[in-house]
Amino acid sequence: MISAMNAQRSAAISAEPARVLIVEDDPTVADVVGRYLEREGYAVETLADGAAAFERARAEPPDLILLDVMLPGMDGLELCRRLRTTSQVPIIMLTARGQEADRVIGLDLGADDYVTKPFSPRELTARVRAVLRRPPGMSEDGSPTPSDVLRAGDLEVDVAAREVRLAGETVALTVREFDLLAFLMAHSHRVFRREELLERVWGYTFGDTATVTVHVRRLREKVERDPASPSHIQTVWGVGYRFEP
User: Fold this and answer.
1) Model's pTM, two decimal places?
2) Are 134 and 182 in contact (CB under 8 A)?
3) Which end of the chain has fewer surrounding CB within 10 Å, N or C?
4) What is the pLDDT of residue 147?
5) pLDDT tens per residue, range 189-239
6) 77 CB contacts (<8 Å, ≥6 apart)?
């Protein structure tokens, strides 16, 4: 009886919709995006103020944040920076098409991805679904299984616990940083083009490969002894990246 009740409780928990916090001061954009996501089954909350969003995300962390760069008071870049000091919640930045510098800065600050305005709500919904999907480390396509512990020198990745340790010290990675590292380690010595990594790790068949480039740079800064001369995450010029144990 107890096991049956536990099973029912687990099923109820797993049936809970993912919570998406939209931080956007344009009510029209927020409303359209919110309705699309609700139609997909997500629980949506919308805020128009960066400071309020920071407090809300700290008090009740969502499963994902859609974050506009241009916000009154605390802008999206500053909000992203502050969130990354306490949380690894997935963040998708919303930026104007001409704000290339802001997009790169947002990725450097820890955003998982960005979408440029004007955007298709269907495309944005697909990006949200890709970020919230089952991590590639749990797939059956040759990626690491949940029981795997991947090792390379003093670098250790526990797939089930989603923890990374370097010389015994825990390394804080974002969702996409972890997924990218685990995927590359599971396919050591193999070279992947940026487009391949965007599809295999992010789940996109289209998108800006600068997202991959910035994530590789951030990973190197966190797990390489000398990021300027990496021993593990290596660049194959004119092709892409490979992991060497």
Assistant:
1) 0.73
2) no
3) N
4) 56
5) 999 999 999 888 888 777 778 889 999 999 999 999 999 999 999 999 999
6) 69, 102, 105, 106, 109
